[in-house]
Amino acid sequence: FQGEQSDFSISAGSPPPTNDELCDYKHVYTDGNAGRYYNYASTAAENEQFLIPASTDPVTGWKEDSIQHSVWYRFTAPASGEVNIDVRDATFDSRISVYNSDGDTCHSDFYSQFEVFAANDDPTALGGGLDCSLQLKDLIPNRNYVFVIDGYKGSMGTFLLRLWVPKPENN
After folding, report:
1. How far apart are CA 144 and CA 27, in angstroms?
2. How many angstroms separate the CA atoms of 39 and 104, rounded?
3. Is the torsion defined by CA of 61, 150, 161, 29 positive or negative?
4. Residue 42 in contact with residue 70, Cβ under 8 Å?
5. Which of the residues 71, 124, 156, 169 has an alpha carbon 20 to 30 A from that of 132?
6. 28 and 74 in contact (C-beta within 8 Å)?
7. From the CA atom positions of the chain, what is the Rg in Å?
8. Which of 148, 54, 36 is nearest to 90 (CA)?
9. Chain center to CA of 80
10. For residue 12, what is the DSSP state?
């Protein structure tokens, strides 16, 4: 092709995470082992906007009212009814929300069936930091709970996720 030119481009990036959609949640365990995850290239289903925590307090809710780059997880509550969730070493301003969701999470009207159990945008009332965490109590043993991790104002990145059962105070 002597003397001919054409435009050519290559696009490279991370594929969406496999748990980008609620129905494709990743089951995580409360054994204390941490895993590194990301929300690059993830999206939000239209109906996910119904799941935004109502509180604008960053310790018990979210400061912003949109979900843009969500990734979904599920865990089973232990017999103690207590679980700690930490999102650490985040490269973006992360936030988390946990929902009651026993049963089929993927039926036609599942978004309207969820209730916010707990949410966190910042580690303290003073705000700041990219990480978030929750200390969950009064979980129903053996019940499944789903949670979403999203980025404040559409931010994306990587994070370390760890769930564990706290030791009883008497030990």
Report:
1. 10
2. 24
3. positive
4. yes
5. 169
6. yes
7. 18
8. 36
9. 23
10. -
